[in-house]
Design goal:
With about 110 residues, the protein is mostly helical. It has three helices and no strands.
């Protein structure tokens, strides 16, 4: 494996990360008027999938080894993604429950009644 391949993967990873950050930053800078929240979420998810592909190809060498190893790498990547997403949602739900934070969907503007 040459160093050039690792440098290419590193640059691609940085590029995809900067693109995700730039999308969210531009969205926040324009007071959420640039694109809708759902479109932003889909774009960030798509970039996350691209990031996963870059990591698998350039650093885990999927496609360069035997097919059995490739399949095991993809299964492991899928398991880790599911584990991290479910764990994160579980932790956030427990934080909300234990700290009494309001759910974002339930927040309504309060008007002063004097």
């Amino acid at each position: 494996m040459t160093t050039t391949r690792y440098i290419t993967g590193f640059i691609l990873s940085l590029l995809v990360t900067c693109m995700s950050f730039g999308l969210v930053w531009a969205h926040m800078a324009k007071d959420h008027a640039l694109i809708s929240h759902s479109l932003l979420a889909m774009l960030v998810l798509a970039l996350a999938i691209v990031q996963l592909a870059v990591q698998l190809i350039y650093f885990l060498h999927v496609g360069r080894e035997s097919k059995t190893r490739d399949i095991l790498s993809l299964i492991l990547a899928g398991f880790l993604i599911v584990f991290i997403v479910i764990g994160s949602l579980w932790i956030m739900a427990n934080l909300q429950l234990n700290h009494g934070l309001p759910y974002q969907g339930d927040i309504t503007p309060q008007t002063a009644t004097n």
